[in-house]
Amino acid sequence: MTAKLRRITYVEDDADIASMVQLCLSDIAGFDLQICSSGAEAVAKTAGFAPDLILMDMRLPDMDGLAAHRALQAIAGLEATPVIFMTARAGAGEAETYRQNGALGLIAKPFDPTTLAKEILRMWQDSQANRAA
Amino acid sequence: MQDQLRALIAKHCSWLSAQVADIATCMDNLKSGDSGGAADVRKAIELTHQISGTSGSMGFRAVSARALELEEHLLEIEKMNDFHDDARYARARSLLGLLRDAAGGATPENSSLYNVDLARL
Prior knowledge:
A: alpha/beta; B: mainly alpha
């Protein structure tokens, strides 16, 4: 049985990009979206939101995305929450690093707002299919 | 929602102008040599990185590409740890000029997202 993607925590410090993602993922695609502007805010708030998926920018004001993800994984209930990283450095080497850190995938910045929701959904469905196999 | 999208793009265009002006200030400070250079180059790298990451997502791919070119050149200057090399500075100025030209043409109506039909996404 595959789980449906409903709740997404998005960690991003750029307010305009966060607004664009909110428009794409929440207003248009209908996901329940929580936005956090720093790693510390994500650590403080995400457990209460209980997301199905974490969308993590790599450059945050207080820590990098990998460190923020590790901090979230240390919280009860979030140990196995899947993550997708967003980064301007999306080369093959980086992608492998992120996969080794348990990422479902990598979204390159700049991203295409018109396909963002579909891209995330595709990564989610692929991971669900792999889990079921 | 279309109005929301267009308002976001318009806000980005204003931000972009200010951002490019701030990069130019960093470059001026670098040339004057008062600050030693490292801090100016680091700040310019941060500013160009923000542009390369955000402008493309606002429908201005050419601006993003120009910002990335400048960012990579500034990273090279930082890596060389030589902030007063005339040739590298001239190249940075040239790339800044290209970025400024691209950013100057970034009006909301010129965004590739301006006329996107959100209802069809």
